[in-house]
Every structure is written in C-alpha cells, then in structure tokens.
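In this section we turn from sequence analysis to structure. A common task in structural bioinformatics is to predict how a protein folds when a small molecule is present, because the ligand can shape the pocket around it. The inputs are simple: the amino acid sequence and a SMILES string for the ligand, here flavin mononucleotide. Study the lines below before reading on.
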Amino acid sequence: MLVFKGMKILGISGSLRECSSNTTLLKILRDLPFPEVEFGIYPDLGRLPFFSPELDDGDTPGIVTEFRARLANAEGILISTPEYAFGMPGVLKNALDWTVSSGEFTGKPVAAISASPTYGGGDKAHASLLLVLSALSARVAVKGSFPIPAIYGKISKTGEIVDPAIRDLLRGVLSELVATIRAPVEE
Ligand SMILES: Cc1cc2nc3c(=O)[nH]c(=O)nc-3n(C[C@H](O)[C@H](O)[C@H](O)COP(=O)(O)O)c2cc1C
C-alpha cells in the first residue's frame, strides 16, 4: 500500500508567552487545510540550556540533541518571532547558536516572520534574524519572510482571529516555504 507522508515543517516561536501572538500565528498555520504539509511546533525553546561550546564537547545535553534531530528531520522550518528592544529574543538566538557547529540549518529552507503590535512589525528583529540565517547558510524563502505589523488588528490578545485575511497571508508564507523546499538547489 502506498502511504502518503506529508512534507514535514517545524514551527519555532521566539516567544515563551502563553498567549503569544507569534505562537498563535504558528497554531493558525498548523491548522490551515494544507494537505501536503505536516506542521509541528517545537515546544521546548525555553528549556534549552544557554549555549556554550564547552557544553557541546562530547556530552551534549539530551534536549539539544533532540532539538537538532527535530530540525534535521524537518524539510522546512518556519520561525515566527517577536522583537524585544530592537532585537530577536535571547531564547531564539540561543537556540540558533546551538546549531552553528552542528549545521542543521545549512541549506535548510526557512521562512521567517515577525509579529508585533507596532507598525514596524518587529522589522529590526526580523532583519537580524535574516542575518543570522545567512550566517547559518539557510535557504530563506524570501517572498514568504516579512514582518507583520499591528498584529492585534489581525488576531486578539487571547488568540482568536480578528481579521480572516491573516489566514491568506499565512497560507502565502507556507506556500512560499513549500515552493522553496521543492525548488532545485543551485550548485
Ligand atoms: C521587554 C519588551 C521589549 C519589547 N520591545 C519591542 C520592540 O523593540 N519592538 C516591538 O515591535 N515590540 C516590542 N515589544 C512588544 C512586543 O512586540 C509585544 O509584547 C509582542 O506581543 C510580543 O510577542 P508575543 O505576543 O509573540 O509574545 C516589547 C515587549 C517587551 C515585553
């Protein structure tokens, strides 16, 4: 019997807040009717230890090994991040730092969005995230990566959809990521 297996995409939210708008966007993405995609959300960002190369010398913490395996197993990664003090949250940078030497992002298709109540949409955190992704040699889905401003006009503070157009915007993000996964890699 031929069993169809969906394209695995892992969502990572840069916010640890229970009612995070960025995590809500990932949940909307997970629940979109997009049959060719299996969308999972990484749950343990706040449990990763602070990165230090010494912790990676032989006896790497199990949670880091699991994180790396989930990244490696995903065909694409979708990051949604807030902006704190004009930068990406430390927990997200910390998680990305754990992959520098192990290389899970090398050549990996990634879409990156940022959501904020401000009119900038977290554009500075978004720009710094793109810079880090380029250092990691990720394949960024450029047209599916952008800041989302005035987020509380689109979803409520408790996670309900206020403006249904957010679904189409997010569907576009996912479509661009899927197109990047399918695109032939230029040598
Ligand atoms: C300490 C702190 C610093 C913040 N700095 C920024 C900022 O520089 N730019 C911005 O757009 N929003 C900033 N915000 C507002 C966040 O965008 C807002 O809290 C957002 O809802 C966080 O994302 P989340 O809903 O996914 O947790 C800041 C919030 C906090 C608590």
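The longest helix spans residues 165-182. As an exercise, try to locate the residues that line the flavin mononucleotide site and compare them with your own expectations.
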